[in-house]
Every structure is written in C-alpha cells, then in structure tokens.
Specification:
The chain has about 400 residues and is an alpha/beta fold. Helices cover about 35% and strands about 20% of the residues. The protein has 3 domains: about 20-90, Winged helix-like DNA-binding domain superfamily/Winged helix DNA-binding domain (Arc Repressor Mutant, subunit A), CATH 1.10.10; about 95-220 and about 390-405, Nucleotidyltransferase, domain 5, CATH 3.30.420; about 230-385, Nucleotidyltransferase, domain 5. It has helices at about 20-40, 45-50, 55-70, 135-150, 190, 210-220, 285-290, 290-295, 305-310, 315-340, 350-370, 390-405; strands spanning about 70-75, 90, 95-105, 105-115, 120-125, 160-165, 170, 175-180, 185, 205-210, 220-225, 225-230, 235-240, 245-250, 250-255, 345, 380. The chain is globular, with a radius of gyration of 23 Å.
C-alpha cells in the first residue's frame, strides 16, 4: 500500500467579505474530506495540505476533528526515507451509513453502505408490482428497511439517511409524478415511508427519492463515496420491464431543469409501433423492455434474460426479437449520441447478458445513424450487475456527508 502525495486539488472558491469563522471552518472541512475521499490511495496530511493550499497545522486540526467524528480513520504509519512517518488516512469503516432502497416492477430492495463503500447488509425480494398500490408497497419497503437495519446492528453507528429509487419521473421535491410500469401518480414516498425510530435524542433519518436510472448511473460513476470511477462521462441505459437512461458528465448526473432528463425508453423509434404504457406508441420500451422482448420471442413472462439468450442462439422468434430490439436500441442511442456528443454507452440490467446478441444490430444502426460516425469511436460496454440503483441510492446519501462533513461532527 502506498500513501499518495498527489491528492486531486479541489478549488476552495473565493470567500465573500464578512464570512464567519464557522463558515470558513465548514468549507475547509469539506475540502479536506473531499480530498481524502477522492484519493485513489490512502492519503497523508501533507498531501492534503499540498492539494488544498491549507497550512499543515490547519489540516492536522481538521483531520483530528474528522477522526473524532468517525469520517476518517488512520492506518499504520509508513516510514519512507528520512523524516517523520506518514500516517495514511482513509474513509472510516463501520461508522456513518447510507441506506439505499428501491421499488422495481419486479423486486423490492435495500442495501446499507458505509463511508468506505463496504456493503454492511442487503436484501432483494422478488415481487410483481405492476399497477401496484403505493401505500402497500411503501409499507413493505419500510419493513424491509427495518429488517436490514436490525440485522446490521453493531456494524454502524449513525444512519445518515435513506434514498428510494423508483422507475419514473421524480421532481425536485421528491414527488413521484408518474411511474408507468408501477402505475403510480402524484405520490410523495417520503411522507409515507417511515423508517425505524432512532435512539432518543437523535433526529430521524431523512428519506429522499430519486429516479432509478439516475441512481444506478451514479453507482457507475463512483467507486465509493466521493471517489470517482475510471470513466466520468457516459450515457447509462437501465433495462427491466421499462427502459431508462441518464447522462453522466464529469461524474454528475445531468437531470435537466425539472429532473426528468434521460427518459430514453419513451423516445420514439417507430411512429406506427405498438402502444406503450405511457400512452404513446412506438416507444423504445415496447421493443427493448423485458416484457416486450419475451412476448416477441414467444417466451413466458417468467423467463429470464439468460433464457432469451439461449433461445436466440438458433434461428427463430427469439433471434428475431433480439435483432428487432437491437435495431430499436441503436436508433434511440444514435439520437442520444447525436444530441449529446457522448461516445461511451453503458448498458445495464437485462442488457448485460443480452449485449453480445444485441451488439451486431446495435452497432449497425449507430454506424449508419450517428452523424460523426466516421470520426467517432463509440464504446458500448456492459454495466454493473446486482441492482446498482441500490448502491447509487446509498452513495447519494453518503455523498452529502462527504460534501458537508461538519453536520456530522460532535456538537454539530
């Protein structure tokens, strides 16, 4: 293990006249925390001072606060040459945790993650939730959250909050406007989703709500809380019964003015196509969504993506369904590439096992429809398996801790 001395510099911004000492301290704490969390290897106090422009004494004092508050922890000192040993700093394990929750048309899930990125507990329960009652479903989510928190008791100390991922339009107030495949409209999950009561004297953990594709994309953009992954700019496509998408630029989801950007599953691929659950016709989802796939392949709706891959290995309806879906997906993603100038496409969910079968038709459409195709090398790669929206939801909660660590320190 090495201690890096080239911590990524985080601009501190200019302070306005009259800023108080408390505000200056909070800002410096944020800078130190973000540098420590973003470093690919354990980082020293000296490296943080060099990256932040703060004095070593200031960094040492702030690090001591973060150690006491359970945001950082020290590893064994390393001796390299002359001088004082360098003490590596890493995100704390088993202290502050974030809870990711998800309602999918085909399952309910919960995942608890700590500041190091370790999964402390998780559970995914298969379910059929099309046209479901949100009150009943959210009660089940609350029960699942309670089970996860109880089963992991002793592995964490503070619950920073929870984030619920849903497959539909979510506004900036956390209101679920519409989820065509769940059948929900105008639902406020945070008002109905009650987490277990915290110990006496502690404020209840806040519950936020986000779009499933946005949160799944965040899991691809981050290796751990505050730590960017290798690729920070890409377009992510989520696929289950529905199809969603998110544009990530420099590690940040681009949600649009109202938070509704990325609904690639409801972009038009054929004006004369079949009706969609959204009320329109010819949407990508009706060619590349799971139920559409399986119906066109002549398989039952309980069949898996792996079953479809096996069936598509020989000529017949399954292969035709995969080819049709590949062309529809290629048409939609060519529009994405033309509009956003993105050259990295990440396909998640059921598209992961199907990607080898989808790739020929998909690449053919991209080649013929992307204006800059002769000069642009578009990468198509599989995403993470294992319900990434659950991880992304937990990372979203913990990202707020990293950005504003002073709120989580003793006496805050």
């Amino acid at each position: 293990m090495t201690v890096t001395d080239d911590a990524q510099s985080v601009p501190t911004g200019s302070l306005t006249p009259g800023v108080g000492q408390a505000s200056l301290r909070d800002q410096n704490l944020s800078v130190v925390t973000m540098l420590a969390y973003a470093a690919p290897e354990p980082v020293s106090r000296a490296a943080i001072a060099a990256g932040s422009g703060l004095t070593r004494s200031t960094v040492s004092r702030l690090v001591d606060e973060l150690l006491a508050g359970g945001l950082l922890e020290e590893l064994a000192p390393l001796i390299a040459g002359r001088g004082r040993p360098a003490t590596p700093l890493v995100p704390a394990r088993g202290t502050i945790a974030g809870l990711g929750l998800e309602v999918s048309p085909s399952y309910l899930g919960a995942r608890l993650v700590d500041l190091s990125g370790a999964v402390l507990a998780e559970r995914v329960v298969p379910a059929h939730l099309e046209a479901s009652d949100p009150d009943i479903v959210l009660d089940r989510v609350a029960d699942l959250a309670g089970e996860i928190l109880a089963s992991s008791d002793g592995r964490w100390t503070v619950l920073a909050g929870a984030r619920l991922a849903v497959p539909g339009l979510v506004d900036s107030d956390g209101r679920v406007l519409r989820t065509p495949n769940l059948g929900w409209r105008e639902v406020m999950p945070a008002e109905r989703l009650q987490l277990p009561a915290p110990p006496a004297g502690e404020a209840p953990a806040a519950v936020g709500v986000g779009n499933e594709a946005d949160l799944a994309a965040l899991a691809h953009a981050l290796e751990a809380p505050g730590r960017p992954a290798g690729s920070g700019t890409f377009f992510y496509v989520s696929a289950d019964i529905g199809v969603g998408g998110t544009s990530i630029v420099d590690g940040v989801p681009v949600r649009g003015r109202h938070g509704w950007a990325g609904e690639v599953g409801h972009t038009l691929v054929d004006p004369a196509g079949p009706p969609c659950t959204c009320g329109a016709a010819g949407c990508l989802e009706q060619y590349a969504g799971r139920d559409a796939f399986l119906s066109a392949a002549g398989l039952g709706l309980d069949a898996t993506a792996e079953d479809l891959v096996t069936a598509a290995a020989v000529p017949g309806p399954a292969r035709d369904a995969v080819d049709r879906a590949g062309r529809a997906l290629g048409t939609a993603l060519a529009n994405v590439v033309n509009l956003l100038d993105v050259d990295d496409l990440v396909l998640g969910g059921q598209f992961i096992p199907l990607l080898p079968a989808l790739r020929p038709a998909l690449e053919e459409e991209l080649s013929s429809r992307v204006l800059a195709a002769p000069w642009l090398d578009v990468t198509i790669r599989p995403g993470l398996s294992g319900e990434p929206a659950l991880t992304g939801a937990a990372l979203a909660v913990l990202g707020e801790v990293v950005a504003a660590p002073s709120r989580w320190l003793p006496g805050a």
